[in-house]
Amino acid sequence: SNQPNWFTVVGVFEDTKNIGMDKPAGTELYLLDQQFVPLSGGVNRQNFPVRATGDPALVASAVRAAVRDIDPALPIFGMQAMSDLVADSLVRPRFLSILLGSFSVIALVLAAVGIYGVMAYSVSQRTQEIGVRMALGARSSDVMTMVLTQGTKLAAVGVGIGLAGAFALTRLMSTLLLEVSVADPGTFAGLRALLA
């Protein structure tokens, strides 16, 4: 019939992530068994969480025995500990995070080596100038200040460009970050300080 089905709301609960930990929480309805519409083909598959302490294998056998006492013909399958279920839903995001984290560490090392290389090349280009300054009476602290000032300017420009690029590319990684902001200021500030 085309008549709408009316249901009485008996409670409201917190958001539930039933699709996966990396997906946003969706709308959920809990219905009585008599109100549940079977899937196509007449199969009525339902999930029942069981809160218990102890070994999951022992709990599973106790649950199987309890269900068998109620209805011996009722098939029971897919029993799994909630911790295993959550871990299974995080396998792909965890693998991608480890992979990207490894590449990030390699990129960080390469960036640090690159900064060192640019600084070393800059100083080697000014070796004669530094020698002349020292011969004319410049103190080593003055020369060090001059080199560090120039290096700081180069590093600031490079880190600024790198942070702008990183901020622009964080949108691509938003699906891998679970409940973490893509523009985490602490991470950006820490990386800037580390590279500087």
Set down the secondary structure blueprint:
Elements: H1 56-70, H2 82-89, H3 91-125, H4 127-135, H5 140-169, H6 185-195
Description:
With 196 residues, this protein is an all-alpha fold. It contains 6 helices and no strands. It has helices at residues 56-70, 82-89, 91-125, 127-135, 140-169, 185-195. The model has no long low-confidence stretch (mean pLDDT 80).
Percent of residues in β-strands: under 5%
**Structure class:** mainly alpha
Count of helices? 6
- Mean pLDDT over the residues: 80
What sequence of helices (H) and strands (E) makes up the elements? HHHHHH
Q: What is the distance, rounded to the nearest whole angstrom, between the alpha carbons of the first and last residues?
A: 71 Å
Task: Sketch the major β-sheet.
Answer: none
Beta strands, count: 0
Radius of gyration: 31 Å
Low-confidence runs of at least 5 consecutive residues: none
Please tell me what the overall shape is.
Answer: elongated
* Helicity, as a percent range: 55-70%
Which key terms come to mind for this protein?
196 residues; mainly alpha; 6 helices
